[in-house]
């Protein structure tokens, strides 16, 4: 392989690790990357949702640094900057509003598609209402109510808040036909994030769209009312989206072969976080730090490395250092992560955070232990994740020495990030972005 390979970063929103290792879920393209590359079986997101996890993935720095994750600040290291400085053509394709230009993610990309210009007619009408009417007005609330009831009644998703994998691929294909080597491309698929859409030839085939919409609304608004059958159907819808995304990735890889030399290409597959389906009485992805939300796929295919499975703990913060190492790029910035291929087998703690340093939650994993705590160290839990992978039993009272060692590490981590952090406010974003965030379940 030459010293400047093409690099593809594939990330999937809300993809749990246990689903890509589940033989009942058809993911031949995920499997191909994992089986023919290096699969890191103990990878953790740096946060339980996109806002916290992706800044670490794309910068190699901890989420609470550089003012936190309210937005990607201009002084934070960034993968597009690193590859651009090395002479790469850079491109990104996604439709997650938290990764939009308004949050700073377009920096240093030659081509940046964040779905802002994609509009269905119904979506345009919805956005016009959002921009025009005060949210506390009777008319706005009435139209909002009618919108929700309309979805329930018709089984139609009135203006999806993300771009489907097929349509996203079309953007990538157009760019591939025009770009020059060497190139760095980041593609982030949103389909596995709710709202879920039933797809033919997947696990969700045969589920009525109307039922999918009603179950999603229950999951967000009143999860305690979900029946076991309803939860099972939600999981089928989720698996269907995973299988659909796998198909889209397969089509992307096929197209890639037309333009890139696959013997000179690095591909890294990862997820920003997972998804909960009531395992610990929570649904979706909020501030919880259980494995169903924090444990994610992390696999890399590179011609210079033999296929392998590595169980050393790695983190989202290691993604950028890994890509730079595989592309032999020197980036004159200090990164907190390290190349996944340089991670020691023992004595490495992996952190994830949610909320803010002055009132958030922290997860720390080392060896067979996993500790979760609030930043005040008042609500502490310890799990034996080898003997109890479901994290069903808190064993902190029986292992006070282990807890004490972990808390020392957590205090050190919080102190480190606080000393390098200035307060950064959330950016003012357009009504279009606010509306898409609302439809993804992030805002009321």
From TrEMBL:
Residues 5-326 form the Sulfatase N-terminal domain. SUPFAM superfamilies: Alkaline phosphatase-like. InterPro entries: Alkaline_phosphatase_core_sf (IPR017850), GAG_Ulvan_Degrading_Sulfatases (IPR052701), Sulfatase_N (IPR000917). It holds the Pfam family Sulfatase. Residues 418-444 are annotated as: Disordered. It comes from the Archaea. This is Arylsulfatase A. It comes from Halomicrobium zhouii.
